[in-house]
Amino acid sequence: MFGQLLVAGIVHGLIIGLAALAVTLVFGIARFPNAAAGDTMTAGAYAGLVAHKASGSLLVAGGAAVAASGLISLLGYLLVFRPLARRPVASLLVAAIGVAFLIRAALGIVFGHQQQVFQVPLAWPIEVAGIRIPPMDLTLAGVAACALAGAFGVLYLTSIGRQMRAVADDPDLARVSGIRPMRVMVTLWLLAGAAAGIAGLMLGVKTVVAPEMGWEGLLSAFAAAILGGIGSPVGAVAAGLLLGIAQEISTPYVGFTYKIALSFAVMLAVLLFRPRGLFGRVEGVR
Amino acid sequence: MTLSVRNIGKSFGGFRALDDVSLEMPADGLLGIIGPNGAGKSTLFSVMSGFMAADAGGVSLHGRPLDRLGAAARARAGMVRTFQVPREFHHLTVRENLMAAAPGQTGENLLGVFLSPRRVRTEEAAIRVEAEATMDFLRLAPVADTPAGRLSGGQKKLLELGRALMAKPRLILLDEPFAGVNPVLIGQIMDRVATLNARGIGFLVIEHDLEALSRLVPRLVVMDRGRVLATGAPDVVLADPAVREAYLGGAVA
């Protein structure tokens, strides 16, 4: 029982972690809480659903989710967030909520509001060390692992990733060091969108696809981003896993309704003892 | 091959920070800028580096006007500035700080990252070697993997110089490289600047430490209240009564 919940928690945690990665990257570099991240996830889920119906392949669905969410994320930046870039954070947050409603409305109009499901073949669980694991969980965990490897590879092994982290630290210094701000922002939004898209696809496969799914998942993503130390990509993923596992393992004790509340209790408890979050670092003194 | 600053004007509200400032220097030369606080020295650097837009006038390097370029493009055109209060990418290690400033990488582009991963890896290795050499040159090698936010003030000054060097500059604008730096490091920074100048990199240096500056540069520009007061060899300029009046308050005999 515990083992099964742990596995479910890891898969759920990877979903939260990917969404939190999208949130924390935007927060670290564009410097506002992107409330549209949840609905970017939803867009990825629908794109994946359509592609999966057409092809029957999860791989194709993943590609479609990444492409659609990346594109929507980039459009949001070019059409809304870039023109507002120098405004106060509150304006950007409200604008992001507006973008979120817009995406959700568009998805509702195109796909309707009834819940849809991924038609994935039922398969017997695989038994590993006495724990029964549904094969789909393994596939999804693999998908998430690849997505995370891609994202962290870009962030820590390439010039653009280093430049993104540099802009997060000091945007003005980045400019005088010859780092092109536009290129960094475009990459940021593509990367954040792609991460959200994969998260949406996974959530859709695990549960149902509906226009509200991402908005409902947004709070968990924000919680994980804060718990991990806002702006810390590693922290976001670790905290996502922690919250996902906490939610699943607590379900038998607190019931389905309160598992979300419990994950917030975990977040608050950690922040009481470690206000910077798990991976937050002390800011350099100016 | 010259840096040419022509008739720059810049006001903040009613305050004229820069008033018809012009100066010219060979792009591989050494020129010092001195002047009392509020003379407009740092503002001049901000305008030159594309940080602030000038109200009037223009800057050109090697005859190429830079006025329409943003800060990042000016850095890539070969003119890189440092800051009076040293700045660093504080979460990045010293090595990463240096590598972040290397221009023209395939890996600066997501398409490049996914389409030519091998080229990205080769270039990464190359700028890593370059960063290594820069750290050796500036004696930053022992702190290569330290997050830059933890460096001492003097080390941060050296890191600023290093970051400027990684950008492949033709001309570096140094804003008070010796301020708050211990005397041993001052000697080291002066030594490095002289070496780099001998290799053909030009320096425009704002500095309050007149003694150190006079040893470093053959020519000084004196600024006061947003204007150029005098230009010439250090001993000549510093003997000028107008300069003594404005800058030294006539207090030094």
Strand tally of chain B is 10
Domain count of chain A, please report it: 1
Shape of chain A: globular
CATH superfamily of the largest domain in chain B, by name, is P-loop containing nucleotide triphosphate hydrolases
- Return the CATH topology of the largest domain in chain B: Rossmann fold
| Quaternary form | heterodimer
Radius of gyration of chain B: 19 Å
Query: Which structural category fits the helices and strands of chain B?
Result: alpha/beta
Based on the model shown, name its key terms.
A: 286 residues; ABC transporter involved in vitamin B12 uptake, BtuC; 11 helices; 2 strands; 2% strand; B: 2 domains; four-stranded antiparallel β-sheet; 10 strands; 24% strand
Question: How would you characterize this protein structure?
Answer:
The complex is a heterodimer of chains A (286) and B (253). Chain A contains 11 helices and 2 strands, in the order ααααββααααααα. Chain A has 286 residues and is an all-alpha fold. Chain A starts with a helix and ends in a 13-residue tail after the last helix. Chain A has helices spanning 2-29, 37-55, 58-81, 89-111, 135-157, 159-169, 171-176, 181-206, 213-227, 233-254, 259-273; strands at 126-128, 131-133. Chain A has a two-stranded antiparallel ribbon with strand order 1-2. Chain A is globular and about 60 Å long. Chain A has one domain: ABC transporter involved in vitamin B12 uptake, BtuC (Orthogonal Bundle). Helix content of chain A is 74%, strand content 2%. In chain B, 39% of the residues lie in helices and 24% in strands. In chain B, β9 and β10 form a beta hairpin. The mean pLDDT of chain B is 88. Chain B is built from 10 helices and 10 strands. Chain B has 2 domains: 2-88 and 151-247, P-loop containing nucleotide triphosphate hydrolases (Rossmann fold, 3-Layer(aba) Sandwich); 90-150, no CATH class. In chain B, α3 packs across α5. Chain B has helices at 41-48, 71-76, 94-100, 110-115, 117-137, 153-166, 183-198, 210-216, 234-239, 241-247; strands at residues 2-12, 15-26, 30-34, 56-61, 64-65, 79-81, 171-175, 202-206, 219-224, 227-232. Chain B is an alpha/beta fold and 253 residues long. The longest helix of chain B has 21 residues, at 117-137. Chain A binds chain B through residues 154, 157-163, 165-166, 168-170, 172-181, 183, 187, 190-191, 281, 283-286, and chain B through 49-51, 70-72, 75-76, 80-81, 83, 85, 87-92, 96-97, 99-103, 105-110, 113, 120, 123-124, 127, 147-150, 163, 167.
